[in-house]
Write a structure and sequence with these properties.
The complex is a heterodimer of chains A (about 140) and B (about 500).
Chain A lengths: L1 E5 L9 H9 L6 H6 L8 E6 L2 E6 L7 H5 L5 E3 L6 E3 L9 H5 L6 E2 L7 E2 L11 H4 L6 E5 L1
Antiparallel strand pairs in A: 1-8, 2-3, 4-5, 6-7
Chain B lengths: L15 E5 L9 H5 L5 E4 L4 E4 L9 H5 L5 E5 L12 H13 L4 E2 L14 E3 L20 E3 L8 E4 L2 E4 L7 E3 L3 E5 L7 H14 L3 E2 L16 E5 L8 H6 L2 E5 L10 E3 L6 H7 L7 E3 L9 H14 L6 E6 L4 H10 L4 E5 L8 E2 H6 L4 H14 L7 E5 L5 H10 L3 E4 L1 H6 L22 H4 L4 H25 L5 H4 L6 E3 L4 H7 L2 E2 L3
Parallel strand pairs in B: 11-12, 11-21, 12-13, 13-14, 14-17, 17-18, 18-20, 20-21, 22-23
Antiparallel strand pairs in B: 1-4, 2-3, 5-19, 6-22, 7-10, 8-9, 15-16
Helix pairs in contact in B: 4-14, 8-10, 11-14
Classes of the chains: A alpha+beta (about 140), B alpha/beta (about 500).
């Protein structure tokens, strides 16, 4: 499956990955509207920083994903074709157990309602996920494993 | 103490103003995070991004990375009282010095408006009587060799086949007549050095270590490395000489002829200390002269010492700044045994130099090149050394003109750094390069990914090489070596008789 690999040594901490992730998961996918007019979706990637060490972290799509095991309603599933861990908001009951069990902190609350969580979906509509495509220093790379 | 150095109200105006389009600004703070000069900051109470323009150096990192193009950085249009003599630059320099009591420092090359002769020289092209060549259809040779060439070739026969009897001294093989200038590890980041090394290896050319020694991780690019031996002798040891493809003795630098170098102790990190072989945190001072070179004979001694130390296996180059009597000095250099002579013109760059030196000392490279090539030809020793020119080569057209004027190849420094992201803000000496080039700050130097950097440099060389082939083809020439010193293919535009005489070219129309 496709995976996003962060390269700590080249991450410059600009957080453009976060910004373009938000735009890609917004209603209009227009950067100004997404940030200033619409409900702003949760970012699915977060830059972790300590001094000059930084890297962008998103869902690792674990082989044995604790979020899938923990999900009460079957909302968190693995896509049989792509292998991506996906979240079905229709089935989600909003218990947020997935948020508690994720060892990377890569699942977040998203939106005003209680039910929905946001997590990296590898941008299914794009050939290259928005965070990878917009990293100015190639500190995020998409690999096929 | 004759002056009070601190606590004075500054009379300096911000050099740049920053216009932020509030509709476009999404408060993402990329600008704030990317500016090492701390110009931008976000105010939560106002939900707005502010800027302290007095700190802005105009490197355009913020404007380039802003995802909504909300930023316009522009030259401060505030006018000083009109005066051709007391210009804005002159006044601002005096304000600065009256506040600091210090020597004015700057980076990069001379930015004053001395004539750029490249822009006053035009190239020839074939029409009707001599056919031009299409480089996409016919072979075109950009390969060239640097090093001493024999006075004559003696060909004998061995087993019925012709064989070369003349011993050829070591040569550097260049796939394109463009190399990367000497820029030290210390002046630029490790990632910038690695970008240059990888690009040189991939493009089949050479980069130069400057006088900062060679980081042990870069020894693997040794075949594409010219190792410099300069007045401070930093990082010079047996392995360093051994691994290089060629050695270069640096006498002078175009940006600061007659001046030594000074890498401040703050930049001498553990890695730089190991590479330069000096204690961590100490200033690296390069003396203005080599203390063992006070004559051509002394220079010859060092050239032969280096040749002897490396078993006569590699060419030795000598680099000087282009100055008034370059031609006579170059003649001495060739007679001292230099295989390659490098001339660095007044527009050559630096990591740090006193502004007055950078902008007032030295001569344009075009004139120095023409004078040196003429002199070596007159003396019948032009074949004994290759000529490489540096300092202000900005495009493939400059390369072609330099070669037609008599150069064997060129060095590019500023152009290479621009390919890596440099915006020529001239603040290299601050160590805060926002583009990750002229800095040792680990937070900043990681901004230059050497994989990306090497790719950009290789692309630049490829693009220039294609353009050089087109220009050669247009002149009906199919090899770069056939153009060397072919000044008949050049014409001057708007030049005086004296300038034309020095350049050895005719005026357009003649």
């Amino acid at each position: 499956m496709k995976r996003i690999i962060p390269r700590e040594e080249y991450c410059i901490g600009c957080r453009l990955c976060e910004i373009h992730c938000i735009v890609q998961h917004s209603k209009s996918r227009n950067i100004i509207k997404a940030f200033k007019k619409e409900r702003r979706p949760a970012k699915r990637v977060e830059v972790e920083e300590h001094g000059h060490v930084s890297f962008a972290l998103q869902c690792r799509h674990c082989e044995e994903a604790p979020c899938i095991t923990a999900c009460l309603s079957g909302a968190m599933q693995r896509d049989g074709v792509s292998g991506v861990v996906v979240h079905d908001s229709q089935r989600c009951v909003g218990c947020w157990t997935c948020i508690l069990v994720c060892p990377y902190g890569a699942v977040r609350r998203d939106g005003e309602g209680k039910k929905v969580v946001g997590k990296c979906d590898l941008c299914p509509d794009l050939e290259v996920p928005a965070c990878v495509a917009n990293c100015p220093n190639e500190a995020l790379v998409l690999v096929e494993e | 103490m004759i002056g009070r150095l601190e606590g004075l109200k500054s009379y300096l105006l911000p050099q740049f103003l920053i216009d932020r389009d509030d509709y476009r600004c999404i408060r993402c703070e990329v600008c704030a995070r990317q500016c090492a000069f701390e110009v931008h900051w976000y105010d939560e109470e106002e939900d707005a991004v502010f800027a302290d323009e007095s700190k802005c150096v105009g490197c355009l990192r913020c404007a380039t990375l802003c995802p909504t193009n909300a930023l316009v950085v522009r030259h401060n249009p505030t006018q000083h009282p009109p005066n051709a003599n007391w210009t804005r630059e002159v006044l601002q320099n005096i304000y600065k010095q009256s506040e600091t009591g210090g020597v004015l420092l700057t980076g990069m090359g001379c930015d004053t408006d001395y004539p750029i002769y490249w822009d006053r020289i035009v190239l020839d092209a074939s029409q009707v009587t001599n056919p031009s060549i299409d480089p996409l259809r016919e072979p075109m040779e950009l390969r060239t060799y640097l090093g001493a060439k024999p006075d004559a070739l003696k060909v004998g026969r061995k087993g019925g086949k012709p064989s070369l009897e003349t011993r050829i001294t070591p040569q550097l093989k260049l796939e394109t007549p463009i190399m990367f200038s000497a820029i030290s590890y210390g002046a630029i980041s490790y990632n910038a050095c690695e970008s240059l090394a990888r690009a040189a290896a991939e493009a089949g050319t050479y980069y130069n270590t400057g006088e900062g020694g060679l980081h042990r991780n870069l020894y693997k690019y040794g075949e594409h490395t010219i190792c410099q031996v300069a007045s401070g002798r930093f990082g010079v040891h047996a392995d360093y000489l051994e691994v290089a493809a060629a050695l270069e003795i640096k006498i002078g630098q175009g940006a600061k002829p007659g001046i030594g170098g000074h890498l401040p102790g703050e930049k001498v990190s553990a890695e730089i200390s190991r590479t330069r072989m000096i204690p961590k945190g100490t200033d690296a001072l390069s003396p203005a002269p080599h203390h063992d070179i006070y004559s051509i004979e002394d220079l010859a001694q060092l050239i032969y010492a280096l040749k002897e130390a490396t078993h006569w296996s590699k060419p030795v180059s000598v680099k000087i700044a282009a100055v008034h009597n370059s031609a006579a000095i170059a003649s001495g250099m060739v007679r001292a045994g230099a295989d390659i002579i490098v001339l660095d013109g007044i527009r050559g760059g630096t990591g740090a130099a006193p502004t007055m030196i950078r902008d007032n000392v030295g001569i344009p490279i075009e004139l120095a090149l023409a004078a040196v090539d003429d002199r070596l030809r007159q003396e019948g020793i032009r074949n004994r050394a290759s000529i490489v020119v540096a300092g202000g080569i900005r495009s493939s057209a400059d390369v072609v003109k330099a070669i037609a004027l008599g150069a064997d190849a060129v060095y590019i420094g500023t152009a290479a750094l621009v390919a890596l992201g440099c915006h020529v803000c001239q603040k290299c000496y601050t160590g805060k390069c926002n583009w990750g080039i002229a800095t040792q700050d680990p937070y900043l130097s990681k901004r230059l990914n050497p994989e990306v950097g090497a790719r950009r440099l290789v692309n630049l060389l490829r693009a220039w090489s294609h353009e050089i082939m087109e220009m050669l083809g247009g002149m009906g020439i199919n090899a770069i070596e056939s153009l060397r010193g072919n000044r008949l293919r050049l014409r001057g535009v708007g030049l005086t008789r004296e300038e034309l005489d020095i350049l050895g070219i005719k005026h357009a129309g003649a």
